[in-house]
Structure formats: C-alpha cells, structure tokens
C-alpha cells in the first residue's frame, strides 16, 4: 500500500510554480531571521518549522540569521538562547549569520541611493515627521529637507556615521512618495543615530539601519530565494521590493517575500515586550519559568521537541490569522509522553493507610511495568509494606454502588499489588481522617495468575510505601492568564488577567526508584499526570514540574442552546423536540459507523474522522450516548468514538458522574493505545 501523499500548502505551491517556471532547484535557500531581543516563544516555532521544514523537503540550506540592528534591546544572552532552542527542536542550520555582518555593505548601498537622489537626511523632530506623514486616507506632506543637495546629504550622512550628532538630531530617509496610499512607502526611515554598544560590533557604529532596509538586503546578500514571514509584514512587501529594486543585479537570485498566518494561542501572550515585562516585574521567575510560553519555559516544564513539532504540523500553514486553542498543544504533549514516559507512583495529597492483617515488619518488592505503550521499557521493583500513603480523594467513608474507589466495606486493588477492603478510620479532634484501616487478601497479588489474583474489582489505586517513600516537591502549574485573549482588551491592561494561583507548591511522596531521576527526566505519575524533574532539583530535594494532567481540566463551559417556551406553541415545542431527537439519533448513528472503521484508518484519516465525530457530537445528548458505555471490549473503535464524543459533551458543560468516571477509567486501563490516549484527554 503506497504512502498517502499530503497536499501541498500554499507556500509549497508557490515554490513548485517557481521551479516549474525555470528556477533551478539548487537556487532554493531559506532563512529563519530572529531578532535577538528576547527568548523565542511557541509562536516562533511555526516560523522555524516552516523555514526548516521547507529546507528538509527540498534538501535546501537554511540560514540562521540574527537581525541585530537595534543595540538598545539586543544581547548576547538572547543569541545563545535562540541557538539552543532551535537546536533543541531538532533543526540544523547551514550558516550562522548576522545582519551586523553587512553593516558596511548596507552603508555603501545607502550612499549609492543618496548619490542617485533616492535618499536624504531629514533633520526634523520625530513629532514633526509624524504629523507630516498623513493618515491612511490623507496624503503626507514633504519634509522641508527633502530637496537637500546630494553633496549636503552625503556630508551629513558621513558626519552622522562619525558620531558628530546627538541621537534624534538627524535620520536618513528613502525618497519615495509622501502621497503613496501605502503609508510605509512615504519616505521610510533607513538609518537613525544610536550611540549604544552593539553586542558584536561594539562602538564601531553609531548609526544603525532600520529593519525594513536591512531585512530584504540581507536576504539578497545571502541569496535567499524565498523570504517567508508572518502576515503583519504583508504591507511591507511593497517596500521590501522597492529597496531590492535599487540594488539587485542581473543574473543574481532575487528574494521573494511571502507571508503566512502567525501562530496565536489562547490564554497566552506572544509579545516579547510583554513577556519581558512579566520577567522584569517578577510575575514569573525568568524567561524559562515553566508558566512562560517560551521554548525554554516549555522545555523546563517537560515538553518535548516531538510534541511541539507535531503541534506545528497539526496547526498547518494558513493565509489568515486565527487563534489556536492551547488545549491542542496540551493534547500533543500528552500523546507523546504517553508513548515515552515511564509510569511511576507518587501521592500528592497523602492519607495514611494501614493494612491491619499484613505481617508486622514484612516488606515485599513487587514487579511493576514501566510503560505498557513501550515493549522495551521493561519492569522495575516497588516496595510494599504494612503502612502506605494513598490519595485523600481516593477514599470515602460512605459511598454508593457506583463509587469505584476505596470506601468502608468496599474492595479495590492497589496498583501492581493486592486487593484491599476498607474496614475503619481514625480521626483527629476536628473530624479529619488521619488513618484508614484495611484488610488485604493475601492470595490476590496482581500478576501471580492465581484464581484469587484474577478476581475483578472495579477500582485501582496508586500508592507508596511509607517506610520507603521519598519526600519531594511538586510545582503544579495552572495557566498564567485567566482570560482567553488577555491582550485583546482595549480598556484593560493584560496584567489584570494574571492568574494569582498559577503556581502551587506542594510536598509529596514518591516511590524510591525516582532517587535515580535526573534533571529533565519525564514521568507519568499514575492517575495524576505527567511530570518532569526541574532544574532546581538537588541530591537533597527532588523537585518535579507538572507538565500536563491526564485530562483537560480547562475545558470551556458552554451553555447549551435552549428553545424559549414563550415564543412558540406547545405543539411547536414538541415538533422542535422531535426534530432535535431525530438529529441526535442520526448523528449518533454516523458516529458509530465512523467508530467501527476508526482503528483501521491511517493516522491522517483518523484525524479527519476524529474531527467529524467532534462536529457530530454537538448534536448528541448524554442520554443517547450513555448506553454506549457498555460497548463490548473488543469493539475498540466504537469505544474510541464514544470517548471522543464524551469529551465534546464535557467541554460543553456536562458534569462527570459515576458512570462517566467508570467509563473513563476503563479506557485508561485498556491495552489499546488510541483508546488510552482519548481517555487521558477527557
């Protein structure tokens, strides 16, 4: 069976057309041109992925070029961080270059434009120039210095270069058209005076080229064939081409600028200036704070290059800006960590459990599977003893028949260990439970194959042996902003939406195998989520960051649409209800059909089928879906489709009940990786 070909995105179509029209494939060259004025964030991964992805597709070189034209904001620290991030994502650049490499060439070209009467020195204040520039609907006004002689302009420009003037006293402007409908073409600034130390050239220069003048000319010097940038630069394309017109020689590669939609993420700030503000005001603990959307922050939080690249690939290349739900990024990291993260046991909110009939002083080392998704992951030994810690939420004194965790008089299995039964509790003076007393079935050890061990119970709990437990610190992160679009409010500052509870530090207990964990190691704390070892960890204290939970706990609560009883008759209401029921049944029928063939589909078609199921799920009620919870285990596809549908209903505001919890738990305990992944996501 031949591999299914992915359709070309619009940038690939442009390149294919150029090749078809005679461009030599050997002339293809791309670049990623960050400004070293901050750390790269998740939004940059799209630009990185596009440029380096095209390089991989066409076996073409990709330069890493730092557009370092503003010494007031640029630092070597940012250069080093950017190189580290691009390498960590798995990309290799052809040449490491800097716009500052071309300062002399850019200066020489500027002199050429002055001599040709296409550039002049303006000595107005910035306020005066702003007034003369006009508006999008009103033409600008010529500067009183626009018609200076070539000789005077050359003299002033050289004196600017030699440091004779103060900052703001003169600038060099291109002489284009002050009445041009595109305001960027109204005599744009090419050079300004900045008497600041440059991170590479030191004090050699005190005039620095503007971005628009530098960008295209640097592309030309490097023989870049396709200069790819985000949509906000589309109005700049006309100026990009005008500047190139002044310098491009016959027989050389002329760069072509094309624009794509930038990556915007919900609940996230993408402005480097605003991210810097978070750092400087101490809202976060640096650019690599795990709450930050920077690549270094995501890396420290436990994200993987594979997950980020999969996210960028899933988002795709578009021509229009849109906002991507951050839950898609979280889904991608769950998918990746589910495959690679070892399973371990940790208790985050411990309560003491004593097995009263377990022999005093006895301890056992039980076998536990490291990762059921990875056949090569093997097994480890975990210690078991009379006194354990379990999660406080995993116990109720009194519970109904649909509660599948530990309760008095009920049985559960301890993961990789025995079946226990709740017998009694001990409380403090305030009525808080301090101890849970249980009995265990000594013949029920998991994995022994005896009749008793194969006895089924509906709940499985994780635990750690108190005698062997390692005390550690967990940093639980929530979203940094409580608003979906924190910087879109004209009447409010984005800082007003800071989540005061974005970081919670708790003392936890983990199994002793984690003593060997190293900084950056990633784990699934069973039934809790994915965690990694933080940079602050030491031999004295293990510190874990929560990367992401097993389920999306930030699902939107959408109100269901209801028909007003006041607006139509009772007969009409019944008709509406019948029509709704019919649509629901039809949608559920299609969902079941999609589920039947789901596991046999290639990945691309699975994603398409999943999207169809999610759309159909909007017309399904919980009452119609609930009977599918009892679908036979062998009908994995139908169970996956049911789980996807359930996820949509939960996002619409459906509250979890015992049946839902049980269905999800069955999915998590299943051997099918696709079903486990969907169960982890709801």
Short synopsis of the structure:
The protein is built from 18 helices and 29 strands. It is an alpha/beta fold and 682 residues long. This is Glutamine--tRNA ligase.
General shape: elongated
* Low confidence ranges: 556-584
Spatial order of the strands in the main sheet? Answer: 12-27-28-29-25-26-13
Mean pLDDT: 90
* Main β sheet profile: 7 strands, mixed
Report the count of strand segments. Answer: 29
Straight-line N-to-C gap = 34 Å
Keywords:
single chain; 682 residues; alpha/beta; seven-stranded mixed beta sheet; 18 helices; elongated; tRNA-synt_1c_C2
Describe the structure.
With 682 residues, this protein is of the alpha/beta class. It is built from 18 helices and 29 strands. The strands form eight sheets. Strands 12-27-28-29-25-26-13 form a seven-stranded mixed beta sheet. It has a seven-stranded mixed beta sheet with strand order 23-20-21-22-14-17-24, with no helix packed on it. Strands 4-5-6-7 form a four-stranded antiparallel beta sheet. Helix 3 links the parallel strand 2 and strand 3. Helix 7 packs across helix 8, helix 12 crosses helix 18 and helix 17 packs antiparallel against helix 18.
């Amino acid at each position: 069976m031949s591999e299914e070909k992915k359709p070309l995105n619009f940038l690939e179509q442009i390149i294919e057309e150029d090749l078809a029209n005679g461009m030599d494939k050997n002339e293809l060259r791309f670049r990623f041109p960050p400004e070293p004025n901050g750390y790269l964030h998740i939004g940059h991964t799209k630009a990185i992925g596009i440029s380096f992805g095209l390089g991989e597709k066409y076996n073409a070189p990709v330069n890493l070029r730092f557009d370092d034209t503003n010494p007031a904001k640029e630092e070597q620290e940012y250069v080093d961080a950017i190189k580290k991030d691009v390498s960590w994502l798995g990309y290799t650049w052809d040449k490491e270059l800097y716009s500052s490499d071309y300062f002399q060439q850019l200066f020489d070209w500027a002199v050429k434009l002055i001599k040709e009467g296409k550039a002049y020195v303006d000595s107005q204040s910035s306020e005066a120039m702003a007034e003369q520039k006009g508006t999008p609907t009103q033409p600008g006004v010529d500067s009183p210095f626009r018609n200076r002689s070539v000789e005077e302009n050359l003299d002033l420009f050289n004196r600017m270069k030699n440091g004779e003037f103060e900052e703001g006293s003169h600038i060099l402007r291109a002489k284009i058209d002050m009445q041009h409908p595109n305001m960027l073409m109204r005599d744009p600034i090419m050079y300004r005076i900045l008497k600041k130390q440059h991170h590479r050239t030191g004090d050699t220069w005190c005039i620095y080229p503007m971005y628009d003048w530098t960008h295209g000319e640097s592309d030309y010097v490097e023989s870049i064939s396709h200069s790819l940038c985000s949509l906000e630069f589309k109005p700049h394309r006309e100026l990009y081409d005008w500047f190139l017109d002044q310098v491009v020689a016959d027989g050389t590669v002329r760069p072509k600028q094309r624009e794509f939609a930038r990556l915007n993420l919900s609940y996230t700030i993408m402005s480097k200036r605003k991210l810097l503000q978070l750092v400087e005001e101490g809202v976060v603990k640096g650019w690599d704070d795990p709450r930050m959307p920077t690549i270094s922050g995501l890396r420290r939080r436990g994200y993987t290059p594979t997950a980020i690249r999969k996210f960028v690939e899933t988002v795709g290349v578009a021509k229009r800006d849109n906002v991507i739900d951050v839950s898609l990024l979280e889904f991608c990291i769950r998918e990746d960590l589910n495959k690679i993260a070892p399973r371990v046991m940790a208790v985050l909110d411990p309560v003491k459990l004593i097995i009263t009939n377990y022999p005093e002083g006895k301890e056992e080392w039980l076998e536990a599977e490291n990762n059921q998704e990875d056949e090569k992951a093997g097994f480890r030994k975990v210690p078991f003893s009379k006194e354990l810690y379990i999660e406080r939420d995993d116990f109720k004194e009194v519970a109904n028949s649909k509660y599948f965790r530990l309760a008095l008089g009920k049985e559960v299995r301890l993961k990789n260990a025995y079946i226990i039964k709740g017998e009694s509790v001990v409380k403090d003076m305030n009525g808080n439970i301090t101890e849970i007393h249980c009995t265990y079935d000594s013949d029920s050890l998991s994995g022994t194959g005896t009749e008793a061990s194969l006895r089924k119970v509906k709940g499985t709990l994780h635990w750690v042996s108190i005698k062997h437990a390692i005390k550690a610190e967990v940093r639980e992160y929530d979203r940094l902003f409580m608003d979906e679009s924190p910087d879109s409010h004209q009447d409010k500052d984005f800082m007003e939406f800071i989540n005061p509870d974005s970081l919670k530090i708790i003392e936890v207990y983990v199994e002793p195998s984690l003593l060997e964990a190293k900084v950056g190691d990633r784990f699934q704390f069973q039934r809790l989520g994915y965690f990694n070892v933080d940079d602050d960890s030491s031999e004295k204290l293990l510190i874990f960051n929560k990367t992401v939970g097993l389920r999306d706990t930030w699902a939107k609560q959408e109100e269901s649409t209801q028909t007003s009883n006041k607006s139509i008759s009772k007969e009409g209401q019944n008709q509406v209800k019948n029509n709704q029921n019919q649509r629901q049944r039809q949608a559920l029928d299609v969902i079941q059909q999609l589920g039947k063939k789901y596991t046999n589909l290639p990945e691309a078609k699975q994603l398409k089928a999943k999207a169809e199921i999610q759309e159909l799920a909007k017309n399904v009620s919980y009452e119609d879906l609930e009977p599918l919870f009892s679908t036979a285990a062998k009908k994995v596809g139908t169970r996956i489709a049911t789980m996807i549908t359930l996820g949509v209903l939960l996002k619409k505001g459906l509250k979890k009940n015992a049946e839902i919890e049980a269905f999800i738990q069955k999915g998590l305990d299943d051997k099918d990786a696709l079903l486990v992944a969907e169960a982890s996501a709801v």
